[in-house]
Design goal:
Layout (H helix, E strand, L loop, with lengths): L3 H14 L17 E3 L8 E7 L3 H11 L6 E4 L8 H4 L13 E5 L12 E5 L18 H9 L9 H12 L1 E2 L4 H7 L15 E2 L9 H6 L19 E4 L4 E2 L4 E2 L2 H5 L8 E4 L2 E9 L2 E10 L4 E14 L2 H11 L2 E2 L1 H6 L6 E2 L12 E3 L1 E4 L10 H4 L1 H14 L11 E5 L1 H4 L4 H10 L12 H18 L7 E5 L7 E4 L7 E3 L11 E3 L7 H18 L8 E5 L7 H11 L34 E3 L14 H18 L1
Parallel strand pairs: 1-11, 2-3, 2-14, 3-11, 6-7, 14-25, 15-16
Antiparallel strand pairs: 4-5, 8-19, 9-10, 12-13, 13-14, 17-21, 18-24, 19-20, 20-21, 22-23
Bound molecules: flavin-adenine dinucleotide and 2-acetamido-2-deoxy-beta-D-glucopyranose (10 copies).
């Protein structure tokens, strides 16, 4: 079951699949310089660093650790190298997200969502989720990163100031938009928040829908809305943001192109189609991993040693699974699965978060701006023109991803009369009732610390809760809750811990304040259309139905329609103090084990109010420096 916003995007993604010229040129495997080990040939028995997962963070860390030309690095990946125009294609943003190159795991039924189940989608190929994501290049606000450090004390380097150098100098290279397209819709940006030295690129489509300028400007009619100078400024507001795209090739730029392809080191090996099932532990020290390698007729178990460190980068769904399979996790769970506990670490697989989203439809009946996205499939002249531009020069609408303008707003802006009441309600909750029965006291303590912080966040104009990506079309679409308060779990399946996928439970809406916040999110969307200059265009609310306005009715609508995932799973190996249910410390080292770190999206203790890819690159860049400092 895919969320409805994917359908709406897929709809206007159709034209391109019929055009031979629309796709980028697939990169032949001979273009990969770094050693790709097929079927394990040339695998050495030991490496300085063994990294699990050739995704966004794994390839970033591998590139940085091997760049001295001396340290030997092996990355083990369950998926394959995939050369496909659907991956390189920027248009529509989500052409590659189907089941072919991803894990798609159905969650357990969600009682607060009318027992619906939801599907978690994460990449399973070289490049990981960065190979299939929607390429939106977004950073959280300064509050989001300062919050992470606050759990350790005020001197933590996990802060906006501490991470900004990684965003700027390392994570991603920024190219400004072309003059003509920037002028056409008043795109604003500020290069002082960016660098240009990474091989992961972010840049701008060569076209924008003309109605976007008015859709941005309409937010000026709402008191309190800020217009920060750049998407990277760490401020909430309405702004333009770029696309993870190579500006010259006009193709997806991701961990594979930025941190694997074209590198020449013989000290950086990637082994594909190999699933790591255990971390080898010897007296509390990680010494290597064992993995399943599928040959034509059989599956063999192979082990490889790490001279310096084992680094887990399997993503927020599989990193906790691997720790639990290796005996690092909540002891009761491990016992139920028949796994000996090596380190009783109650937080592993807890604190699971993703951004809930809801599809809304407010239609502007008298909207008459052309071209707009519907012209891609309803106006043959326009689509013929678009295809000609793309074929000739890779310009025009086919260079567009999901979008480049959006609102990211705090509760005091979207609910000025209600945010204080909502914050106090959160402060008064009995937090234990929102977590599973039997939750370990340290995990509960961590949740309390987070909720105290979230109450402050609800009162802060610089923590974004509301996200609405503008489309240049006549109707609203997906609206996202950027700071959910409910926490789920990702645990091994105790009846079949090694063969089965982990059991994913979003525990959606188990904190009742999530619904209060989402009610305000839906109401604000209506306000944007009915109480700004857009009201002159005849807004009509279709979804939720026009008659549904009272909070209790909106809650009913939400429990029927919320999807708990916007593809941003995090939090399952949280960087928090151990007494707050943490899994890794500020050095990203797993508590209770030596020479073992986690470096992926699972370490975020609390979601950022942003799509998670850019932050994952920054975490990985910082992780590489921490690891080098210890070498
Ligand atoms: C459909 C979709 C759309 C998204 N859109 C955006 C967006 O527009 N903007 C944005 O900022 N973010 C977006 N995201 C989120 C972002 O891409 C992720 O947060 C980020 O890429 C996560 O990086 P990671 O390193 O934690 O994990 P991943 O990049 O997922 O890498 C994990 C890797 O580990 C491998 N692996 C797992 N288990 C094992 C094992 N046992 N052995 C060996 N290998 C293993 C996996 O195959 C995978 O390659 C999207 C994600 C998806 C799925
Ligand atoms: C959800 O399922 C449970 C267990 O089967 C059942 O008790 C409950 O009534 C169901 N709730 C809804 C809203 O269908
Ligand atoms: C363009 O955007 C800037 C920055 O938000 C704003 O100050 C200016 O008024 C906008 N110009 C137009 C013509 O909309
Ligand atoms: C990269 O950034 C540096 C420092 O801001 C600047 O001097 C240089 O011109 C930039 N290079 C490119 C290619 O944009
Ligand atoms: C790798 O080698 C090729 C061919 O010698 C060269 O063109 C390329 O720049 C090198 N890449 C890197 C990252 O050093
Ligand atoms: C693999 O299985 C096939 C079909 O069962 C068989 O013909 C072949 O001999 C097997 N190969 C090896 C190497 O065992
Ligand atoms: C399509 O273009 C042709 C030629 O430019 C023009 O005559 C026709 O009116 C256009 N049709 C539409 C629907 O725009
Ligand atoms: C492609 O770019 C060239 C050079 O700018 C221009 O002359 C030509 O008209 C463009 N082609 C199309 C179809 O826009
Ligand atoms: C959890 O505990 C509460 C209160 O004791 C009880 O009402 C509820 O049924 C329990 N839930 C589960 C799943 O055991
Ligand atoms: C756990 O694994 C068993 C055996 O493979 C399977 O039948 C069951 O559906 C799995 N449970 C969940 C919740 O995925
Ligand atoms: C839409 O435009 C028509 C014609 O200009 C006008 O008569 C009508 O009142 C408008 N409808 C709305 C809902 O604004």
């Amino acid at each position: 079951m895919l969320p409805s916003f994917v359908f709406s995007l897929a709809l206007w993604a159709t034209p391109i699949s019929g055009t031979a010229h629309s796709a980028g040129i697939p990169i032949p495997r001979s273009g990969l310089h770094t050693r790709l080990l097929h079927g394990g040939h040339n695998l050495q028995s030991s490496y300085d660093y063994v990294i699990v997962g050739a995704g966004t963070s794994g390839l970033t860390v591998a590139d940085r650790l091997s760049e001295d030309g001396k340290s030997t690095v092996l990355v083990i990946e369950n998926g394959q190298v995939v050369d496909s125009p659907r991956i390189s294609q920027v248009f529509s943003g989500v052409a590659a997200m189907g089941p072919t190159w991803s894990y798609q795991i159905n969650s357990v039924p969600q009682p607060n969502m009318n027992n619906r189940s939801a599907t978690v989608v994460v990449g399973k190929l070289v490049g990981g989720s960065s190979a299939i994501n929607a390429m939106m290049t977004i950073r959280g606000t300064s509050d989001d990163y300062d919050r992470w450090g606050s759990f350790f004390g005020k001197d933590s380097s996990w802060s906006w100031e501490g991470l900004l150098p990684y965003f700027k100098k390392k994570a991603v290279a920024f190219s400004p938009p072309g003059d003509a397209v920037a002028k056409s819709v008043n795109i604003t940006w500020d290069t002082s928040y960016w660098g240009n030295s990474s091989r992961v690129h972010t840049s701008w489509p060569r076209f924008q829908w003309p109605a976007l300028e008015a859709q941005v400007e309409a937010f000026r009619d709402i008191p309190g809305v800020e217009f920060p100078p750049d998407s990277g400024s760490g401020k909430a507001g309405v702004y333009w943001f770029p696309t993870f795209m190579d500006p010259d090739k006009v193709e997806r730029s991701y961990a594979r192109t930025g941190h694997f392809e074209g590198l020449n080191g013989t000290n950086f090996d990637v082994l594909t189609e190999s699933k790591v099932t255990n971390i080898l532990l010897n007296d509390g020290v990680a010494t290597g991993v064992s993995f399943e390698q599928k040959t034509r007729n059989s599956t063999t178990i192979v082990t490889v040693k790490a001279n310096k460190e084992v680094i887990i980068a399997a993503g927020a769904i599989h990193s906790p699974q691997l720790l639990q399979q290796s005996g690092i996790g909540p002891s009761a769970l491990l016992e139920a699965a028949g796994i000996d506990t090596v380190v009783d670490l109650p937080g592993v697989g807890q604190n699971f978060q993703d951004h809930p989203m809801v599809f809304t439809s407010v239609v502007l009946q008298n909207f008459s701006v052309h071209p707009n996205p519907t012209d891609m499939y309803s106006n043959q002249n326009f689509s013929a023109w678009a295809q000609e531009l793309w074929r000739a020069n890779k310009t025009g609408p086919y260079s567009l991803g999901v979008g480049n303008a959006a609102a990211w707003l705090g509760m005091p802006v979207i609910a000025p009369d209600r945010f204080e009441e909502i914050a106090s309600k959160l402060e008064k909750l009995d937090y234990a009732t929102s977590l599973p029965n039997g939750t370990h006291p340290t995990v509960l303590a961590g949740y309390k610390a987070q909720m105290k912080n979230m109450a402050a966040a609800i009162r802060s104009p610089n923590t974004a809760f509301y996200n609405h990506v503008l489309t240049g079309a006549a109707s609203s679409g997906t609206i996202v809750d950027l700071h959910p308060l409910s926490r789920g779990t990702v645990n091994i399946n105790t009846t079949d811990p090694f063969k089965s996928e982990p059991v994913v439970d979003y525990r959606a809406l188990t904190n009742p304040v999530d619904l209060d916040i989402m009610v305000e999110i839906v109401r604000f969307t209506k306000r944007y259309y009915f109480e700004t200059r857009l009201r002159d265009l005849g807004p009509r609310q279709l979804q939720p139905p026009d008659s549904v306005n009272e909070p209790e009715d909106l809650k009913g609508f939400l429990s029927q329609s919320v999807n708990p995932s916007y593809f941003h799973p995090v939090g399952t190996c949280a960087m928090m103090p151990r007494e707050l249910g943490g899994v890794v410390d500020e050095q990203l080292k797993v508590y209770g084990v030596k020479r073992l770190r986690v470096v992926d999206a699972s370490i975020m203790p609390v979601l950022v109010g942003a799509n998670t890819c850019q932050t994952t690159y920054a975490i990985a860049e910082k992780a590489a420096d921490l690891i080098k400092a210890d070498a």
